[in-house]
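User: For a benchmark we're assembling, each entry needs the component sequences followed by a predicted structure for the full assembly. Here are entry 17's components. Please fill in the structure.
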Amino acid sequence: MLNIKLNFKIMMLVALGAIAFSVTVPAQADGAGAFLGGIAVARIGRSIRDSNDAQQQQADAASQQAYYAQQQAEAAQQQADAGPQTAEQKIAQLDKLAAGGYISPEEYKSRKKAILDNM
Amino acid sequence: MKTTQKRLNTVALLCLMLCVSAAANAASKFDGSTNLLCAAFDLTACVDGVTCAKGEARTFDMPEFLTVNFKKKSIHADYDGDKTADSPFKNFELTDNQLIIQGVENDHGWTMAISKKSGRMSVSAVGEEVSFTMFGACKAL
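Assistant: Structure for entry 17:
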């Protein structure tokens, strides 16, 4: 009988201890971890790298646009040198630009339509 | 007349005591005796030794507030609503003008310096890929 009472007291003490622990120790979220050498360096590194990637993409796009403009200027010069182009020549040139990815499919369609309309 | 003089002396003495007490209290704010709440303002950082950037701490997605708990010997930050992060330190040192706290964490060494007079804070952390310096200010909790 004494043994059962003792066991009950121990169980009560354990239960009270568990409750006290859960109340006094704040639950840490999943992302709990290191601060200055952890999330701080990770976030700063990611932020700078992302920003750098975006700048690189912008530079690449600008470079591609400049190349396209140069191609167009060269084509215009060639056309001026060779005299007026036939519609067939113009469409062939347009095909080359589209195949090289220098103009979008929409741009290709509208320019082709313009050439055909002028025939 | 004498009574009035005595009263004035008492008031003056009381004021002096309060001023001294306030000054002593202010002087002891940033000496490790009281926990601190710090706000991060500006940050300068370099990645891979070549790409550097500077701006407000929040533009780097950094926690804007951190607490220095001298009893737990830890710098604590809450972020993203429900997440927490801590940087433990073993000791801190008081120089003539600064409270210096240093720690090592995840292959990075960090130092926090807080002006004993103004509470202005700077934190730097250095590592192989990312190093940064953050500026802000602290107040006693």
